[in-house]
Write a structure and sequence with these properties.
- 44% of the residues lie in helices and 15% in strands.
- Helix 2 links the parallel strand 2 and strand 3.
- The chain has a seven-stranded parallel beta sheet with strand order 3-2-1-4-5-6-7, with helices on both faces.
- It is globular, with a radius of gyration of 18 Å.
- It contains eight helices and seven strands, in the order βαβαβαβαβααβααβ.
């Protein structure tokens, strides 16, 4: 019979923990890095092309022991090298936040406008890339003995509405992947996805910033989310949802209702 641990775990204390954040140089990833550092974690800010932004962020984070590392999601070999570097620095990872992603604004009715190359790029970065990061960092997460993976998803996964059909498909895949991974990474690792509605960032190229407020106006809470709202939800889930795994945490102000 498998060993069963006793409950009554209390809050997950972040002081002294090691957190890796992909896509950490801007937007939701940067907000998550700030909140994790404020909670006492040593943060590794992952970036692809935003090295300067990542270094500026690390310099401004509270606490010490923070660093940057390049984690390009379309290069699995580079992802493994990044994991090796983190292993050399810290020996363990307690929190892995997969915030890196990409999309392109393509009207859903414009089937020809969504090219094979663009469809493949969106799936590669958002789904395969996230999987490659989790695969590479799993030994470090298991070494923690009590670790968390948080993937930044989207309500596009369930609504089928978003910047492109490929993006909706990618986020749906990410949600299903979290369920599959939760089954095999327990008991040492919890897995959950944060699923926001539109967030006020420059993530979607060409999106009118007013579109975020328009969407929020139709929701019961009528709040236009910014990256820190997602970061606060991350901290809540990591520290409080001790018996949740394979779960999608919706952060949409009630848009789906």
């Amino acid at each position: 019979m498998a060993e069963v641990r006793t409950g009554g775990l209390g809050f997950f204390e972040l002081t002294g923990k090691v957190a890796v954040v992909t896509g950490g140089s801007s937007g939701i990833g940067a907000a998550c890095a700030r909140r994790l550092a404020e909670a006492g974690a040593r943060v590794v800010v992952g970036y692809d092309s935003g090295e300067g932004r990542a270094k500026d962020l690390v310099a401004a984070l509270p606490g010490d022991g923070h660093s940057t590392i390049r984690i390009p999601l379309d290069d699995s070999a580079a992802v493994r090298r990044a994991a090796e570097l983190v292993a050399g620095r810290h020996g363990v990872v307690d929190v892995l936040v997969n915030s890196a992603g990409t999309t392109t604004q393509v009207a859903h009715a414009d089937l020809e406008g969504l090219t094979d190359a663009e469809f493949d790029r969106i799936l590669t970065v958002n789904v395969r890339g996230t999987f490659s990061v989790i695969r590479a960092f799993t030994p470090l997460l298991r070494s923690s003995g009590d670790a968390v993976i948080a993937n930044i998803s989207s309500i596009s996964a369930s609504t089928g509405l978003g910047s492109s059909i490929a993006y909706c498909a990618a986020k749906a895949g990410l949600d299903v992947m979290a369920t599959s991974l939760a089954r095999v990474l327990g008991p040492q690792v919890r897995v959950f996805n944060l699923s926001p509605a539109a967030v006020d960032t420059g993530f979607v190229p060409g999106r009118d910033p007013a579109a975020v407020r328009t969407q929020a106006a139709s929701a019961p809470l009528r709040i236009a989310a910014d990256p820190d709202d997602v970061a606060c939800s991350l901290i809540g889930a990591v520290t409080s949802l001790r018996l949740s795994t394979g779960t999608v945490v919706v952060i949409d102000g009630g848009v789906r209702l």
